[in-house]
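Hi C.,

You asked whether I'd gotten around to modeling the 547-residue construct. I have! Everything is below, sequence then structure, no commentary in between.
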Amino acid sequence: AAVATAAAIALQTPTSNPVVIPTTSAKLPDRKKPDSSHSLPTSIASSTNASRTNPQPAPVPYMYPPARSVTARPSPLPYSRLNAVMKVPTPQMVDATKRRSQFGFGGNHQIPSVPMPPKRVSYNAKKSKKVKAQPIVTVPLQHATNSGPAYERKKQRAKNARVKLNESIERLAIALSLAGSQSQHRLLSLPNDGDPRVSEVMKECVEIAESAKKWDRPEFVGTAATLIQGLNSQCEVLMAEVMRLQQTNGHKRVVDEPAASPATSREQNGKRRKVLDTSKNANDVRLQLFRDEKILESIGRFLDPQSLLRCQRLTRTIRKFFTLDSLWLSLCVQRFGPIHVRQWKENFFDDNNEQEVDSLVLYRKMDAANVKPVIGSLPIIAETRMENKISAWVNIIERSNGETYRSVQQLNENGSTRFSSLPVAELRLFIQNTGCSNAIRIKEQSIFVDASTRRRGEEWQEITHDARFEKRVLDSQEVPISPSEKEKENNMMVTLPLYKTATIVVFVHCKGCSTTSKFQRRANFTKVYLQMNGITIPLVIPFFRDS
C-alpha cells in the first residue's frame, strides 16, 4: 500500500517540480537479488540514486498548487519506513510462496513425491539431550474400599466361610463313604427270599457312593442329595419288609408233624412224577397259546409300552404281534388323546409314499415331545417329566385384567373372622402316569411354590383357612375325585394307574405379586411328593423363565 501511494504521488506531480524524498544518514541494507515483484517505480529509483551521488540541501516541504487542489495532500512516507514495510511479507505473498514451494518452485526446491531421508539418531550419551522424567503425581483416593477395618473384617468372614465349607465337604465325603459301605454290608446280609426291591435300592446306593467326586464340588453336592434320597428309599422298603414279616409270623402256626414213614415217602414221589408230567403238558399248551394271533393281541392290550418292547425281543414270530399298528395306536389315543394324535399324524404324513406314519414311530415322537393330553386350553407355565414314568404340567388361571387380589377369609385371635384382600394365584397341576405299570400314588400334602433368591429364602404356601380356596382333585373330565377309605387310611390323595391323569387345583398366597406376570417372574418351582413302587420321591416342577 505504501509503494502504491508513492507511485500515485509521482504520477500526479508536474515535471517542473519533481518529487524529492528526504534521505537519511543510514545506509540501505544490501540485497542479493531483489525480486522483480517488489521493485520500486522508476521515478523513485532514479531519485534515490541521485541523492546518493550528489547530496543536496534539505528540501523544502512540498506544497500543492493552489489552482489544482484545495485540500492538502498527505506527505509521502520516509524511506526508512518504506524499507521496513517492504521487509514484512504480506499474507498473500506467504500463501503464494507456500503454494509454489509444494511443486518445487520455491526457495527450498522440495519434490513431494520423494520422501525425506531419515534423521540420524545420535547414540552418544554426552551429545544426546537427557529428558528429565516428570514426577508421578499420586492423587489419594477419597473413598478407598479395599482398606480399613471394615474391609479386614469382610476378609476374615470370607476366610472363615471357606474354612467351614472345606470342613463340611470333608465330613460329607466321610458320610458318603460310610453310607456306601453300610449299604454294601446290608446287601450281602439280605436273605434270598426277601423283597427284590430292597436289593435294588441298596445296589443303587452303593453305586452312587462310589461315583462321588470330592474335587468336583457342585457334582459332589448333587451326588450327596441323590444318596440321601436313596437312603430314604432304603428305610421305606425295609419298613415295608418288616411289616410283611410281622404279618406272616403272626398268622404262622407251629405244628409238630410226625416223621414220615417209607410208605408215605413212596406216595409223595409218585405225586411228584405226576406233577412233572402235568408241567410238560402245560408247557405244550403255552406254546400253542403263543402261536394264536388273537390271544397274543389280547395279551398286548394289557401291557405297558416297556413290556411291549421287551416282548418284541423274544422271537421273530412273536415280534410282529407286538408291533401291530392298531395296538400302538390305541396306546397313543389313551395317553395323548384323539385330537393330538390326529394333528400329529397330519404333520408327519409321508407325501412321497402317500402313507401314514407308523403308530410306533408316532408314539416315540410324541413321547419325546412330552405332549400334554387335551385338558383345558390354558397356557403352560411349568413342565417336567420322569422318562417312562410320570409327566407333570402347571397352568395358572388368569383374569382379564391380570390382577391376583381376592377377598380371603381369615381368623382373628379372639376367634372371629374377617375378610382381607390378598394376592392369590390359582394353579392347576396336571399329573399323568406315562409308563409305570404299577399305580402311582399322590400323598396328602401341603403344596407350596418356592420364590427364593440368592440372598433370602421364601415359600408361598397354599391357603387352608378359607373353605372357598380348599384344594381339589379332578379327573380328565373336570369331575371331582374323592379318595377311597383305603386311600384315606394310607394318607393318599389319589391313585394313578397307567395313562390316568389327575388335576390338582390349589390356591397359593403369592406375597408381593399383584399380577400373574409378576408371579411368573418370581416363582422358581413347585414340588409334589409321589409314591412309586413303594418308594416316596419328590417331583420338582420348575417354572419357565423369560429368555
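If it helps when you're writing up: The longest strand covers residues 417-433.

Thanks,
B.
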